[in-house]
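FW: tagging you since you asked about this chain on Friday. Here's the raw sequence from the shared folder, copied in full. Didn't touch anything.
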Amino acid sequence: MNPKMIDKVRDKNPLVHHLINYVVMNFVANGILAFGGSPVMAMAEKEAEDMAKSADAVLLNVGTLSHENISSMIIAGQTANKLDIPVVLDPVGVAATSYRSQVIKHMLKKIRPTVIKGNAGEIAHLVDIPWKVKGVDSVGEGNIEEVAVKAAQKYNTNIVITGETDMICTGKKIIQNTTGHPYLAKITGGGCLLGSIIACCLTTDDHIEDQLISAVTFYGLAAEYAASQNAVTGPGTFKAHFIDALSFPIQKLKG
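HL: got it, structure written out here
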């Protein structure tokens, strides 16, 4: 990863327009503030275009769906595309229901995401590869590299698949990340916040591979550091220490 890139993000303090699920909104806002970004959580359709125009990046997270926020996401995404503003799409639970599947496939016809980030089950569903899921969680097994490459090719975008080992695919190139901690899967929004961190990192002038590996590695190192603290006894205490760790310099996380 590139520590200087993290410093660039913090110097820039990028504004990220979040169209995100209500369950994780507060946690994600606090996390991105700690990291060095500036969050705005604006879901109204009537302001989606103006808010996207003023943002440095746009995050689309479909965790809680309604007719209005789908329209807002499409407007914000299309606005960002026109202005070459990076877009991160998080297809939360896309394999859980046919409605979610239809919504995401419709969005992907309307929007060109810079990055699609999801777990293996979500990304596999987007390329019609059978994968066992449980609600919004991926519980199946298979060839994750194959899933990543197929999704990158099908949607002509960059893919981040989260899991015990994260997979980053830019074109046909696969980069793996093994940093992280199981507690991330025990707190609501552990994956959603990563989407925000990625969005922040996409606002630098670095190469996409450097942006993605730096975002994912930093996030994992922050989780490892937080989990190692003596005061952490479970997911609840981990959550607070994790927010703290997101604000630290990379040298401290590496310890």
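FW: The mean pLDDT is 91.
HL: agreed, and Residues 208-227 form the longest helix (20 residues).
FW: great, closing this out.
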